[in-house]
Design a protein that fits this description.
Serine Threonine Protein Phosphatase 5, Tetratricopeptide repeat; elongated; 6 helices; mainly alpha; single chain
């Protein structure tokens, strides 16, 4: 396109100069302040008062009153946590209704193995292997339980 000399001069002068500092500087400062405010807000929300980016923990969180809150996931009566107790009762009911359910036997054996009750885990793995001799989870669980039982201090 062909422009007149006057239009070309205006286009060249305005594109080379850019916005004056009195216009762009306040805009940049405002954007920087808003950006930093958003970042600070997100960090406060993410870390909360417990220092966890994954949300508030149930540990020893200090409440707003200044007192230390007791942990919320501890049962006074002892025993396994509620989720584990439910899983234990489900597996025991499954085994009671289907005594040759090798998967349930292995899962129950794994629970006992996890908490170090090797004497209770070994018979479960043996029953699972009698029900299904090719069950690799029962074989490895039995081997691990026997190894741990022999290495366990008496």
């Amino acid at each position: 396109m062909v422009f007149s000399a006057r239009v070309q001069a205006i286009l060249v002068r305005s594109s080379a100069a850019g916005l004056p500092a009195r216009i762009y500087l306040p805009i940049v400062v405002i954007f920087a302040i808003v950006f930093l405010a958003v970042i600070v807000y997100l960090l406060r929300v993410a870390f909360g008062s417990t220092g966890s980016a994954l949300g508030p923990s149930a540990g020893t969180a200090v409440q707003r009153s200044g007192r230390i809150a007791p942990p919320q996931n501890i049962e006074v009566g002892g025993g396994p946590p509620p989720a584990v107790a439910i899983k234990l009762s489900e597996l025991r009911a499954r085994i009671a209704s289907h005594p040759r359910d090798d998967v349930a036997l292995v899962e129950l054996g794994d629970l006992y193995l996890t908490v170090g009750k090797f004497g209770q885990a070994i018979p479960l793995y043996e029953r699972a292997l009698r029900a299904n001799p090719g069950n690799p989870a029962a074989k490895s669980g039995l081997e691990e339980a026997r190894t741990e039982a022999t290495n366990q201090p008496k």
